[in-house]
Specification:
The protein is of the alpha+beta class. It is about 25% helix and about 45% strand. The protein is globular.
Length: about 140
Amino acid sequence: MRLEDHILVNQSVPKLYRLISDLENHANLLPGYIESRIVQRSGASSILQREAVIHGKRRRWKSEVNCEPERALHFRQMEGPLEGMQVHWNLECYGTRTRFTIIHDLEVRTWWRKWWLERFVAKPAIEKTARLVLEAI
């Protein structure tokens, strides 16, 4: 399952990258997020402990984050119901603005689970969360 959404932001790529790469500030920046804390760092890679309210329920998970300066942040969910999901925050110069794209990739092996997740669970929640993040930026 692959979901993609984008928005044009009235900021330069370097300025927007500085904002979104401040990983521990995500709790102040992203709607519903309660915690975004670095628990391990190694070069351009970090492990984050995250907590957010999703559909009225508190959810906790860990994400590995790899940073490409002024280009992208790449997340891999390390635990939880969407373990293994890849999330990419890509930045592209678009004149004086920046195109900020969020891509969610989740491999679902069985057809019936994929169908169920796409229609009723993951797809609606991920699309809503991605849109809220884009609008918050």
